[in-house]
Amino acid sequence: AGGGGGAMGSAAEDGRPPAPERVLFPPTFSVSEIKNKQRRHFRFLRWKQQQRKEKLAAKKKRRKEREALGDKAPPKAIPKTIENQRVYDETTVDPNDEEVAFDEATDEFAPYFNRQTVPKILITTSDRPRGRTVRFCEQLSTVIPNSHVYYRRGLALKRIIPQCIARDFTDLIVINEDRKIPNGLVLSHLPEGPTAHFRMSSVRLRKEIKRKGKEPTEHVPEVILNNFTTRLGHSVGRMFASLFPHDPQFIGRQVATFHNQRDYIFFRFHRYIFKSEKKVGIQELGPRFTLKLRSLQKGTFDSKFGEYEWIHKRREMDTSRRKFHL
After folding, report:
1. Which of 115, 177, 181, 297 could form a disulfide with 195 if both were Cys (CB 3.0 to 4.6 A apart)?
2. How would you write the chain as a 3-class SS string?
3. What's the domain count of the chain?
């Protein structure tokens, strides 16, 4: 105490103001204990900035060490993600499995994959659709070849399906909406099903996509199906594949992608160009949307007496963040 008083006295004698006492927070102090909202937010931002600086410094240090070691540097560690820590699913499909091959040869999509049928799609809407849903259906019809748009007004789906079968349609797509925004998609494979019901989100029309390309051409696009690994995912992937004709026209350089990640199916439509032997440029054409499977029903659409193969039950199925079904 005496030493501290002497230091303060010498500072006062020199004409300098006394140094402020340093406030030391207890080890268990948390930013959330600050009552003032603005100060709490400011302290949190400073903490995040400090974390970012430390992370960048550690990254630079590791890079310099790798450059110094050269060829002797150890291999880079694989970052841990929810996707690569996925819980093993016993229904994961083995392409060489005889049972899977038998199922593919006898399921509802076998006529398409055996080239016995040509896809013909009817795209319709919920009752009396609004402008955004109408524009989305029109743009979706330019992505899927040989598709026709019908705007439904007071006609039940149970009456539409027999008419579709009579006119040789192979699939029926229904776009549902809520508060003028598309929020659901029903995909029914005709004439025997199955029927999948998806929740739709993050819908972006062409004019809402930055740096979009020109309008898509009428060429048949290529189709990419990513990460549909389980038996359920395999069925859903075959449903999407059966919407497009077999032989893509590569001259159009257009590709439709269904990418499954953590049971969310991201749809993108691109045009690509080969800039060199190693570089490829891509340009999104739109539309884009995200799907989440809610149910898979046997047969065609039947809301009352339909038999379901799979239903998403949140409280029972979403117990682990690393458990996926597709």
Report:
1. 297
2. CHHHHHHHHHHHHCCCCCCCCCCCCCCCCCHHHCCCHHHHHHHHHHHHHHHHHHHHHHHHHHHHHHHHHHHHCCCCCCCCCCCCCCCCCCCECCCCCHHHHHHHHHCCCHHHHCCCCCCCEEEEECCCCCHHHHHHHHHHHHHCCCEEEECCCCCCHHHHHHHHHHCCCCEEEEEEEECCEEEEEEEEECCCCCEEEEEEEEEECHHHCCCCCCCCCCCCCEEEEECCCEHHHHHHHHHHHCCCCCCCCHHHCEEEEEEEECCEEEEEEEEEEECCCCCEEEEECCCEEEEEEEEEECCCCCCCCCCEEEECCHHHHCCCCCCCCC
3. 1
The list of the chain residues with pLDDT below 70 reads: 1-27
Q: How far apart are CA 197 and CA 210, in angstroms?
A: 30
pLDDT at 122: 95
Residue 73 is predicted with a pLDDT of 81
Q: Is 296 left (phi over 0), alpha (psi -120 to 50) or beta?
A: beta
pTM here is 0.78
Residue 126 lies in a domain: yes
Residue type (1 letter), 180:
K
Report the CATH number at residue 284: 3.40.50.10480
Domain membership of residue 73 (yes or no) is no
In a domain, 53, yes or no: no
Q: Which structural domain range is residue 269 located in?
A: 92-318
**Token duo for residue 324:** 């996926």
